[in-house]
């Protein structure tokens, strides 16, 4: 019989995997707060601008990762739905699905090795060109920090590959525990290095060390799983060209358009209005994105489960789990955004030294409303993409192009308030309504059930 605490636990849609995931995001957000406090102490406003613009430029990895990690999780989950664990290191069952799973691992490892090397080269060169072209007269030491960040990001791509495969195999709790460890180490080291006076080098060095430590833990505990899957004889393959590439093509273009929606803002502000305003935007988006990621955890931890339900055609189960977790996710996001806006208003009124490191209250409100719309869009994407289809392809491209153009024009000619308002109209209203119409239509078409929230 469930206790009152147990009933609340179930109503909140909690699980150990979700708790680890949410804790990781909370730690990440707390780390963002700590980093900002340390930045105000150890970096000036221009260095803060470089710090957050580094993060935006690192998102160039979208052009290389292309959503492959999420796709791999879904494809692995579709195959694993027909297999079972014989012990903690060995998953087996129908020979056909064993073979396809092994082929997925072989193809993914080969592809990601090439992508990681290419990513490092492109990141390093693009960063040198960008920072050498804009605001290079500020005499800020960014060259070595950017090199270390480029190396760290390339390693992170490989690390995320193996996490994605394990997640598809159902090791969600274990993966989220690893992510929590990696994030905790990273935050501690960022703080330590900032205290030590390493300035912009702090983030890249902390990320590199945290990946090395967590990667060692990963392969110590799970290498036998990968070895057993790798050594499985391949008689049937997942045909990447016919099965994966059509889906990947749409996801990739959607993710690239996402770069122009979310990540282009800081570099454009850096180039047009200087690193100080870019730093304010970076600090604001760091917290808003943290709220979005935390609230999306109720759905993101269900990706493998959704894919299992679809593979087994258990649509009623799919709808029940989705509906419950969507409601919680939306509530958490809305409460988080309202709280964040209130805190920023209070900081700017009573503690301007910290409050003024963020954008003004009106731009924060526009960005916050857009994030509430985004948590709905993310939830719908997790549901529909579990069918190995991408119905948001056209909206993603159109919204991405329009949003990118609007960002450049507004930042250059009209200022930050106009830019955030147009961002809200394009993404938070037009994109939201378009996405909801598609979701309602496709959810019924693919499951022949009415999904009401």
Please tell me how large the radius of gyration is: 22 Å
User: Would you identify the regions where 5 or more consecutive residues have pLDDT less than 50?
Assistant: 1-10
Query: How confident overall, as mean pLDDT?
Result: 84
Q: Which structural class is indicated by helix and strand composition?
A: mainly alpha
Order of helices and strands: HHHHHEEHHHHHHHHHHHHH
Q: How many strands, what sense, and barrel or not for the largest sheet?
A: 2 strands, antiparallel
β content, as a range?
Answer: under 5%
What is the spatial order of strands in the main beta sheet?
A: 1-2
Task: Tally the beta strands.
Answer: 2
Shape: globular
The tally of helices reads 18
How would you briefly describe this protein structure?
With 453 residues, the chain is an all-alpha fold. The protein is 82% helix and 2% strand. Strands 1-2 form a two-stranded antiparallel sheet.
Provide an overview of this structure.
- The chain has 453 residues and is mostly helical.
- Mean pLDDT is 84; it is low at 1-10.
- It has a two-stranded antiparallel sheet.
- The two termini are 29 Å apart.
- It has 18 helices and two strands.
- It is globular.
SSE layout:
Elements: H1 4-11, H2 16-42, H3 45-58, H4 62-65, H5 68-80, E1 83-87, E2 90-93, H6 95-133, H7 143-168, H8 172-195, H9 201-230, H10 240-263, H11 265-273, H12 275-300, H13 303-311, H14 315-350, H15 352-355, H16 361-385, H17 393-413, H18 416-447
Antiparallel strand pairs: 1-2
Helix pairs in contact: 2-8, 2-12, 3-11, 3-12, 5-6, 5-7, 5-13, 6-7, 7-9, 8-9, 10-17, 11-12, 11-17, 12-14, 12-16, 13-14, 14-16, 16-18, 17-18
């Amino acid at each position: 019989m469930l206790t009152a605490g147990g009933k609340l636990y179930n109503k909140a849609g909690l699980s150990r995997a979700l708790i680890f995931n949410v804790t990781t995001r909370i730690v990440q957000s707390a780390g963002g707060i700590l980093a900002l406090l340390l930045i105000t102490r150890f970096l000036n406003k221009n260095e803060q601008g470089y710090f957050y613009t580094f993060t935006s430029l690192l998102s160039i990895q979208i052009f290389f990762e292309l959503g492959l990690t999420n796709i791999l999780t879904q494809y692995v989950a579709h195959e694993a739905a027909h297999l079972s664990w014989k012990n903690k290191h060995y998953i087996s069952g129908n020979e056909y699905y064993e073979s396809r799973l092994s082929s997925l691992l072989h193809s993914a490892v080969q592809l990601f090795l090439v992508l990681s090397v290419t990513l490092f080269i492109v990141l390093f060169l693009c960063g040198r060109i960008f920072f050498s072209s804009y605001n290079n007269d500020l005499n800020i030491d960014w060259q070595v920090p950017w090199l270390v960040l480029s190396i760290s990001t390339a390693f992170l791509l490989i690390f995320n590959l193996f996490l994605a495969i394990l997640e598809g195999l159902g090791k969600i709790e274990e993966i989220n525990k690893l992510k929590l460890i990696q994030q905790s180490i990273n935050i501690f080291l960022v703080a330590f290095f900032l205290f030590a006076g390493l300035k912009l080098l702090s983030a890249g060095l902390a990320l590199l060390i945290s990946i090395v430590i967590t990667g060692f833990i990963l392969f110590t505990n799970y290498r036998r799983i990968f070895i057993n899957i790798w050594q499985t004889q391949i008689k049937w393959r997942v045909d990447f060209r016919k099965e994966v590439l059509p889906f990947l093509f749409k996801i990739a273009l959607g993710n690239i358009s996402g770069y122009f929606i979310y990540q282009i803002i800081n570099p454009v502000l850096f180039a047009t209005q200087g690193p100080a305003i870019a730093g304010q935007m970076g600090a604001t988006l760091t917290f808003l994105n943290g709220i979005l990621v935390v609230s999306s955890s109720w759905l993101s931890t269900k990706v493998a489960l959704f894919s299992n339900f679809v593979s087994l055609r258990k649509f009623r189960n799919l709808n029940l789990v989705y509906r419950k977790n969507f409601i919680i996710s939306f509530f958490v996001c809305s409460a988080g955004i309202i709280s964040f806006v209130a805190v920023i208003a209070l900081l700017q009124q009573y503690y301007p030294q910290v409050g003024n490191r963020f954008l003004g209250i009106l731009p924060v409100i526009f960005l916050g409303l857009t994030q509430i719309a985004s948590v709905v869009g993310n939830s719908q994407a997790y549901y529909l993409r579990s069918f190995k289809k991408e119905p948001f392809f056209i909206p993603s491209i159109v919204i991405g192009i329009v949003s990118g153009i609007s960002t450049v024009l507004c930042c250059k000619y009209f200022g930050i308030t106009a830019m955030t308002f147009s961002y809200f109209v394009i993404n938070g209203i037009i994109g939201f309504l378009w996405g909801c119409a598609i979701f309602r239509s496709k959810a019924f078409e693919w499951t022949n059930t009415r999904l009401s929230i």
